[in-house]
Amino acid sequence: MTRCFSVLLFTVLAVSAVRGQQQVPAYLDDRISEEQRIDDALKRMTLDEKIAVIHAQSKFSSPGVKRLGFPDLWTDDGPHGVRPDVLWDEWEQAGQTNDSCVAFPALTCLAATWNTDMARLYGESLGEEALYRGKNVILGPGVNINRTPLGGRNFEYMGEDPYLASRMVVPYVKGLQSKGVAACVKHYALNNDEEYRHQVNVIVSDRALHEIYLPAFRAAVQEGKAWAIMGAYNLYQNQHNCHNAVLLNNILKRDWGFDGVVISDWGGCHSTEEAIVNGLDLEFGTWTDGLTMGKTNAYDSYYLAEAYKRLIREGRYTTKELDEKVRRVLRLFYRTTMNRQKPVGFLCSDSHYEAALKIAQEGIVLLKNSPVPASNRKGGEPLLPIDLTKTKRILVVGENAIKMMTVGGGSSSLKVQKEILPLDGLQRIVNSKSSDCEIEYARGYVGDTVQSYNGVTVGRSLYETRSAEELRAEAVEKARQADVVIMFGGLNKSDYQDCEGHDRKQFELPYGQDELIEALVAANPRLVYVNISGNAVAMPWLGKVPAVVQGWFIGSEAGEALASVLVGDVNPSGKLPFTWYASLDQCGAHATGSYPGVWREQESGRGIIDEDYKEDIYVGYRWIDKMESQMPKAKGQKPLFPFGYGLSYTTFELKNLRADKQEMTADGQLTFTVDVTNTGNYAGSEVVQLYISDMQASVPRPVKELKGFSKVFLQPRETRAVSITIDSTALSFYDDKLGQWTTEPGEFEATVAQDGGGLKAKSQKLKAKFVLR
Ligand code: BGC
What we know:
alpha/beta, 19 helices, six-stranded mixed beta sheet, 773 residues, binds beta-D-glucopyranose
């Protein structure tokens, strides 16, 4: 009896175990590897289901597989905050009340922090906001290189230097993805200007491609392990980059081992056959009549939808390519929508505002702070930080003091829960510190008075009836009465003023701001100019204006961050992530006449612009250095501010550069150490920058290249030893004959400096020679 019962019990248990196993199919079984689960899911999916998951079903989502329990995939811009929801198939706002976000500083500001911890914090905070909003993929970060200061989207990117952008993008991606939200690094590749971006065909040497334009993407993929990448609109080798054989199949997937999903930029896909064979995995945003107008809910007409299915049914393709695409999409599902370990998201938390503030404060760059004589006296003190014990009247001038900058600029435009405007931030901080300092405001100029952008209403009305002369006269008159004048000017993310879709038309400030600045400084020499932009601008008046601050587009806490720097609660420590040219002819893309390229007619009748990057690897400071070394006596080569430049309210001294050895081997490392002392009266941070020069090479090389940096915080009179370690990748170049990176033995020189200024820069530079065996 007992035996019979045991046998029965065993049988029941065994059957239910089998049933239990059957209830958890392999693709849902967390205990087996992801690839095995993908294999199982792939086997179960029908052709229709496979085709469905490789293209969009709405403006920002693509379907999962309902029958198997895979949820839909939701993407969203990116990269500075989570974009508000739009209607299913329209660009119009969905009118949600739960999609107001925290705007983090634009990525140029993040790069200007030169602090990788800030990039990690950025990614994590954004990831939490995305999670709350149910977004699985953030369309960012952007790492296209700043090749010309006219580039309309430079504000969304991380500057001109491949090493700096690489170091900053990796922690952003890791931070974001640690929350179970995919980064979609964009725009791969060579999308360095915006004008006619769908028609630009970039011609670039392999060396420049690999040394300048690809490293940040490669770092995001190989070190950051990015789960998605977005193809760019433009062409390379006459093929659109969303289905470009060389960029996607050869470099990204074969050479770099990218295992994630290639997503087309919205409307960047142009051909079913190229999309099938050239590495595109997920199609979004296609305008289905192929021109400028889209049809409603035309997702079945996408290049990777019915048209693809037809080709498979006709036997023109097997499901080989399709299965590979679906495998990648499923991998993305397991990493995001199917990730059961995801943390909980939250929106507009105190911690997110703190992160936004901190990053903004660290990225603001003090460009100039010369002593200003008090009336009728010589010598004098710098204007900044503003001493509120001696200041009774502050005049704030400029539209950018009262204009929201989180709206505008294209797809990165946001709907914020709060944005502190510069005037309000200053008012708050001044009131909290002084009972008898008044702030007055004068508009000074009119720039962009648009009241709403993408359906998001701009808080304060910027409507103005007075003429430019009246506005200027009012500002100048008030300036005469003020102890200090602070002008917030610059660009504003409206069309042609740092905005997607177009480049800037001019390097000069728009809206008559140069004339206004000249008039203000003539009326009152105690003028602080705060430039709001993501790009350098011409500053013909720089010699006359004693204090200049680069304020970027810095998000929700903009006013608070700017004010804290202006009154000295925060000591600025940002450094420029690009060269601030005096004029466009100092920039390689312009000096060689290769921007914006040459129109060519195509047989189809659609024009193509060939843009030949003739400056080659000499982008940014590399061009300045080259010109200075080739023509040391020539005039007009010095930029207004070099790459890596930024002042502080204190001063720093670098001393005693030493290397742990004089020789290194190809598989070895070398550590440089320098003593950094805060020689002034404020606590503050300095960025120690390490540049490497190849003293004997078989190919032309840049005079120097950034290969390391470290930000250090020091109390007054404190000294710290700062070490930076390199390996031979810091010495290598891309050999276009061999098609690979290579290092040549020989002599190198390390320069440790506070900025990337060239021969003519006055800043301190310590040098050490070493040899690669
Ligand atoms: C932009 C992308 C953006 C996408 C979706 C495109 O126009 O180039 O950066 O992610 O739109 O909004």
